[in-house]
Amino acid sequence: MWRPDIPPPPGPLYSRLADAMERDVASGLLPAGSRLPPQRELAFALGLSIGTVTKAYAEAERRGLLVAQVGRGSFIRDASPDITIATSFDPAPFAPQAAPPAATIDLRCNVPPRVGLSRALERAVADLAATGHLESAVQYIQASGLRSVREAGAAWLARRYGLACDPADLIQCNGGQHAIALVLSSLCRPGDTVLCESATFYGARTAAEHLGLTLRGVAMDEEGLIPAALERAAAETRARVLFTLPTLQNPTTRTMSLSRRQDIARIARQHDLTIFEDDAYYTYADPADRPPPIATIAPERTVYLASISKGLCPGLRLAFVTLPPNVARERIMRGIRALGYCPPALGGMIFARWVADGTADALADAVQAETAVRLAMAHRVLGLAIDPPGAVRSPHVWVPLPPLAAQRTLNRALRAGVELTPPEACSVSRDADSGLRICLGAPDDHPALERALHIVRAAIRDPATSEATSIV
Question: Which of 357, 380, 411 is a domain's end point?
Fold first, then answer.
């Protein structure tokens, strides 16, 4: 049986296993037509999870290395070009050409739908140029960001998040991912444990792994973090930081009630936890009934992150962080200088212009309206396969599936031209909620999204995924 020598890191394990297959194909160790070992057998032989091997085979198939035949197995594809002998008349150039394969539809990337951004961007840059304000965009700025941008950020947080703050206390970051790395690197040291939901934002996992931190997953229910489970984890680990997404949690879309947020704040006080509240999706919740941010319940111990990328425009690369009094601001400033010296100016200046002239509100309202349409489409196509989101609008939905069924669904969708987030990407603990996150904002238009959702539905309903057939 083929037992590859898997290359060392960097890179995900499944990708390195596919690299090993590609290397052995190129060297002739795996000639065309070779039958690959069944995924379960190879996983056992290499001491890997079945999900890792399944994903590696799917990646190899995407690269054109193998072909899977139902009932027979997976075989190395013959990649040699067809050779034909020319004759006096070759009809091939005049024959109808097959249409190129449709582009892959991305349901992995959690971004807001694009609504009028290009024209708004053109107007903002033209206004900045006409008023002589573009000069700051080509200069270094102070590490916490331009005063005008922080003033716009404070106005935006008060208007859209219900969070009052002094502009002088805001820190401008280069998007939410930069903010997560900045805060975790400033609050923690390599080897520290950070508590989080048992399934959490993949970007937080990436940052923690890069910084040498250990994420400890805490069990969830339909409202998110379970207080008793958090209390046990805090006592067992003596962790100092809790990272949480209380509104439309990524990936599960669950939203904490007010009483749940109060419980989390109480436990954080008892165990002296600093709460790192990532509220990327707060603006999608209905203003009439959404609970307040945890930062308003426990302001003395909550670092609050508001991402402009997730609710308005990802390309601005803009987020704001507020700090509690007990967090040394200078440590964050040193982190900014170490990781990027200062935030970029242009995206923040465009945002400030949009806030001042009302464009930001108009764009955000259009994003919310379009998100509602796309969520309704997902409900119509996927039906009961979706867990009910924790808000009337959500840019992503959660399809609960057992791990193997989720991986098989992902592979079938990928073969049909739809990319999904790998099920293990968000998992932190073995008892984490298992399933697939479906992101609705990236497809260019409604027909593309609907086509992708039907492909996902068919992938879930495939008879081989017996665990999932009863929920659609």
Answer: 357
